[in-house]
Design goal:
By secondary structure, the protein is α/β, with parallel strands linked by helices. It contains seven helices and five strands. A five-stranded mixed sheet has the order 3-2-1-4-5. 35% of the residues are buried.
Length: 207
C-alpha cells in the first residue's frame, strides 16, 4: 500500500497489447521530474495467446473462449498488481509517496457480450486494449490509488483545462524533458508523462 509521507508522485500508463509504458513523475509541471520509466508486462507468456487473448479465443467454442479470456484476465490482473507494487515499493524507498495513477483510454464505446466481440475483428482489438487497461485500474485500486482515466484524443485539451498550459507549450516542455532524460522518449513515454502530470495535479487539488 502507499505510504503516508514523502514527496508526492503519480504514475502514468499508455497501454499496448500485453504491455504498458509506465512513467512516474513528481513536482509541478514547470519543474517536473520523471523518477521512473519502464515497460511493464501485462500478458503471461506461459499462456499461449495471452498477448492477444481475444484473437486467440476467436476460433474457440463460446464457453471455451470465455474460460480462456477469464484465465488471461486473471493473469493480467496479477501481473499488473505485481508491477505496480514493485514500482511503488522502489519509489517509496527513495522517499516518494505515490498519490494517483493516470491511464490513457481509447475512445471506444462500451463493449457488447463476448459472442458479439468475437464476431467482429474491430471489437476484438478494442476488447484486448480494454482488458489490459482494466488490469491496471484493478491494480491501482488494489494499491489504494485513485485512477484518472483520460481519453487519448482529449489529452492535450484536458491539459489546457486542468494545467492551464497550451498544446504548444506542453510539447516544448516534453521536448526539454526528453533532452534531459535521453532515450527512450517516444510517444508512449511522452503521453504517459502527460497523463501522470494530470493525475498528480488533480489529486493535489482534491486533497
Amino acid at each position: 500500500m502507499v505510504t503516508k509521507s514523502g514527496t508526492d508522485a503519480a504514475f502514468g500508463f499508455r497501454v499496448h497489447s500485453g504491455w504498458a509504458s509506465l512513467i512516474a513523475v513528481t513536482g509541478p509541471l514547470d519543474s517536473s521530474t520523471v523518477v521512473e520509466r519502464c515497460r511493464i508486462e501485462l500478458a503471461d507468456k506461459a499462456i499461449r495467446g495471452s498477448v492477444q487473448p481475444y484473437h486467440a479465443a476467436e476460433p474457440m467454442e463460446l464457453k471455451e473462449a470465455e474460460r480462456f479470456i477469464e484465465r488471461c484476465r486473471d493473469a493480467s490482473n496479477r501481473l499488473a498488481r505485481g508491477a505496480l507494487k514493485t514500482a511503488s515499493d522502489g519509489l517509496q524507498a527513495k522517499g516518494y509517496r505515490i498519490t494517483a495513477c493516470g491511464l490513457l483510454q481509447s475512445s471506444a464505446r462500451p463493449l457488447p457480450a463476448i459472442a458479439s466481440i468475437l464476431a467482429s475483428h474491430a471489437l476484438i482489438h478494442t476488447a484486448e486494449g480494454e482488458l489490459f487497461r482494466d488490469a491496471l485500474v484493478e491494480a491501482g485500486t488494489h494499491q489504494g490509488l485513485p485512477v484518472l482515466k483520460v481519453k487519448e484524443r482529449d489529452l492535450f485539451d484536458r491539459c489546457a483545462t486542468e494545467l492551464h498550459v497550451s498544446a504548444d507549450e506542453l510539447q516544448r516542455r516534453l521536448a526539454a524533458l526528453g533532452r534531459s532524460l535521453g532515450p527512450p522518449w517516444r510517444q508512449d513515454e511522452k503521453f504517459a508523462t502527460v497523463v501522470a502530470w494530470l493525475a498528480l495535479a488533480v489529486m493535489k487539488r482534491a486533497s
